[in-house]
Amino acid sequence: MSINNLDKFINLTYEDVDLINLKIGYTQGELNEDFNDFEDSFNAQKHTYWNFTIIKDETIELDCDYLLIDWSSSDSFCLSSDEDIADKIAHICSKSSEDMFGDTIAFYSFESIVMGVLDEPDGNECIDLILESIGGTLDILEDTVKIPQEYVNSLYCLHEQIDSENIIFRNQEIIVDDKSFDIGNEYKSNKTIVFFSEDVMNY
Predict the structure, then answer these.
(1) DSSP state, residue 38
(2) C-alpha angle 44-47-50 in degrees, rounded to nearest 5
(3) What pLDDT, on a 0 to 100 scale, did the predictor assign at position 86?
(4) Which tens digits make up the pLDDT trace of 81-101?
(5) 125: which residues sit within 8 A by CB, 6+ positions away?
(6) Are 9 and 56 within 8 A, CB to CB?
(7) Alpha helices of the chain — where are they, by DSSP H?
(8) Which structural domain range is residue 125 located in?
(9) CA-based nearest residue to 28, from 50, 47, 5
(10) Do the Cβ atoms of 16 and 62 come closer than 8 Å?
(11) CA nearest to 192, candidates 154, 116, 141
């Protein structure tokens, strides 16, 4: 797939950028074999509804600090901060959530989980606001794609930072390990999950 604005990164390599996937999902219902869930936990990879990739410029030399790619629409956006990324993703996801679940998941819910993985859950106004309304906590798990089974209705964000020395940008495509990048592939990556302990549908 050809990606707009990717030409800005054409001369950069893995040393100059971070390549990060954000996979946002909702663990609706109980553990299910159809989702290839684990025996006692949800398989976050299988409950994903929204997929994004961030290319972060570490050189501080480009006019595009972050390139956010929305894989559902093939749109890409040049953004300048973590807050801008969280805001853009929240608008995209909240707008489409009613068609998926029959009710709209609040904008602040999405903003909170994205800020939770890009920054820190504590002290962010958007996170404090929604936790005051629905109760519970915003929890973090490192190095896993497993969400404990007690969180049967939990909105989450899986953060995957691709660990490869073979990332290049060519012909409007991302190339990883000599193949075109695919958000659905399993890449060696550092993983973090942020998820709500309470159901955001109650907000």
Answers:
(1) B
(2) 100
(3) 94
(4) 999 999 999 999 999 999 988
(5) none
(6) no
(7) 82-101, 107-118, 125-134
(8) 6-202
(9) 47
(10) no
(11) 141
**How high is the mean pLDDT of the chain?**
90
Q: Quick one: which of 184, 50, 173 has its CA closest to 109?
A: 50
What six digits make up the tokens of 40? 């006692």
Question: Helix 107-118 to helix 125-134 angle, to the nearest 10 degrees?
Answer: 130
Residue 40 domain-assigned (yes or no): yes
Q: Which two tokens stand for residue 198?
A: 């309470």
Q: Is residue 1 part of a domain?
A: no
What is the per-residue pLDDT across 28-74, written as a single tens digit (0 to 9) for each? 889 999 899 999 999 999 999 999 999 999 887 778 899 999 999 98
Nearest one of 52, 50, 53 to 17, comparing CA atoms: 53
Residue appearing with tokens 């002290």? 123
> What is the number of domains present in the chain?
1
